[in-house]
Structure formats: C-alpha cells, structure tokens
Specification:
six-stranded mixed sheet, 2 domains, globular, D-Maltodextrin-Binding Protein, domain 2, alpha/beta
Length: 322
C-alpha cells in the first residue's frame, strides 16, 4: 500500500476538515447582517423591490437585511460590486435581468463576467415593457400601420434610447420587421419621454408603471409578456405581433459565484417566504410585477437566453460595445 508523504497527509486532512466544516457553516448562516445591493437610485424598481423584500427576509433569517444603493454607469457599478464580494451569502443583489443580460453585448472592458460571476439563486417575476409612440404629426395608429409607413419612408424614424439594452432592443425590433431608423441617445428617461410626446422622437421603450401618466398623450403599440395587460387590454402583445422574443423586465436575486449551496438554499427559502407575504405581494403588484417564483436553474436559463438574444442582435447589426 503506497504511503502518503507528510505534505500529502496534510492536504488530505485539510480537505476533510473543509468538507466537514461546510455543513456547520451553513447551519450557522446567517450570523450577521446581510446586504442587498440595489444597482440603481432610490425609487427605481430594483431599489423598491429590495426594500420590499428586506424586512420579510430579515424576519425569516433572524438577522438585519439592509439595502445599499450602488449607482454609476447605469447598473454596471452595482452589479460589479456585488459580483466581487466574498461568496459567503452576506451580499446579494436584486437584479434587472434585461440589464445584466445585455452587459456582455453592450459594454466593453468589463471587469467581471455578468453571466458567470453573479448567477441568480431565485427568480422573482416579470414586469412588462411597452413600445410607446408619439401621437404628434404621424399618420399611423397601430404597430402594423407604423411598419408599413416606415417601410415606405426609410430612415425617417427616430427611436429614443436611454440605456444599452434599449439600444439593442430597438435594433432587434427594426431588424425583425424590416424598417430603418435613427437611434437618438438620452442620458435618462425624462427628456426622452418628453420629446416622444412632443414628436421629436417617434418611439421609445417604457416600463408599464410609467405608462398611466402618459397614456392619453401617446400611442401604445405593443407590450411584452404572455398575455395582455389588465391596464391596457387593447394593446397587443409582442407575441401577437410576431415578436415573441422581445423580453419584459424580469427580476431575480443573485449572489456571487461560489456561494455554498446550503447557504443559497437558505437565502432562496427566505426570499420565497418573503414574496408570499401579503404586504410584499401588494407592493410588487403596485410595481406591475407578475410574481412568478422560479428556481435557480430556471432563472439562470432565462438570463442566458436573454444574453444570447442581445449577443445575436449585436452581431446582426454590427453593434460595437460602448
């Protein structure tokens, strides 16, 4: 029987100690406060969702769950910060799936891998995105009429965009229906929507929660999701328009890669229980989030599928990451 050297025996003992210590560490988790990173400003959906979940999670976990806003470069700073935290379960992030999925195709010189370094451990649900259009000085009143008009008048469409993912979605839409347009960039949504209402821009993507305030002054051409909105039942879904791949505004909770499985299971359970609380359901409903709790595997499949969509679009139109 071969003998182990002293160094070999030491390595075996260390491995055994690590293996036996992991269950104990998981049982002890959490032993201190947990931080949710909200990659955006206070009042944005990821912030509201984070602050809605945190009290109920804290009650279940027996430790404070605090929310920390990380602003800058859109969502990039917050997601990078969360991805690079120790993989111990004490830092998680509420994620806009479409934002995270679009980063590899839209952003150059990334210092982390959005698809590998910050994977989801639970899916929360989906909110709808609406394709809105101006009513000012345009001859069309529906998506089909808009497509026909711009096919007959190529290059006259202004499409307002305010984030990398909206740039790629605009490219995807125009490419798939065979129209041409000029993308007009904005630093934030407020002037973008104002110009769309005024007719300077013809179309923009808008989250469903922003639509009621402007619905009387714009056209609603299409909406994401598997079924029509209860708020806007006359607006066809993108699937009805032949564009089933246009994603909505999905949300998940993610943790740094390498976080132990038992710890993720504990966090998953805490989030699932929190979402089932009546007050949490009510607040998410106010955000028009269609709550659909999904497993880590299903949430990751959705993230990967959306990333492939953006990658394929970028390749088709020759989009260069900015």
């Amino acid at each position: 029987m071969p003998r182990l050297s002293l160094s070999g025996l030491s390595a075996v003992l260390s491995a055994l100690l690590l293996a036996t210590s992991l269950p104990a560490r998981a049982q002890e988790f959490p032993s201190r406060p947990i931080t949710i990173i909200a990659a955006g400003a206070p009042g944005l959906p990821v912030d509201i969702i984070s602050r809605t979940l945190s009290p109920a999670m804290s009650q279940n976990l027996g430790q404070p769950v605090v929310v920390e806003n990380k602003l800058g470069a859109g969502s990039l700073i917050g997601y990078e910060f969360a991805a690079k935290r120790p993989p111990d379960g004490y830092t998680v992030a509420v994620v806009s799936v479409v934002q995270l999925a679009s980063l590899p195709a839209s952003t150059k010189d990334l210092r982390f891998d959005p698809l590998k370094d910050l994977p989801p451990f639970i899916g929360i649900g989906d909110a709808k995105v609406v394709l809105t259009a101006t009513q000012a000085n345009v001859p069309w009143k529906s998506f089909r009429e808009m497509v026909g008009y711009y096919k007959a008048n190529p290059g006259k469409l202004n499409f307002g965009v305010s984030a990398p993912n909206t740039v790629l979605l605009a490219h995807a839409l125009m490419k798939d229906v065979g129209i041409e347009g000029i993308l007009v960039p904005y630093s934030n949504a407020t002037p973008l929507i104002a110009d769309m209402i005024a007719g300077t821009n013809h179309m923009v993507w808008v989250g469903e929660t922003a639509v009621p305030a402007i619905a009387a002054r714009v056209q609603l051409l299409g909406i994401s999701g598997g079924r029509r909105s209860t708020l806007f039942p006359n607006t066809p879904t993108f699937a009805e328009l032949g564009l089933p791949h246009i994603p909505g505004l999905g949300y998940s909770v993610n943790a740094p890669s390498g976080t132990p499985g038992p710890v993720l299971a504990r966090l998953n359970r805490a989030v699932a229980i929190a979402i089932d609380q009546p007050e949490v359901k009510t607040r998410l409903a106010q955000l028009q989030v269609d709550v659909q709790v999904t497993s880590a595997e299903a949430a990751n499949r959705d993230l990967q599928a959306q990333a492939k969509l953006f990658s394929d679009v970028a390749a088709r139109v020759g989009y260069v990451p900015q």
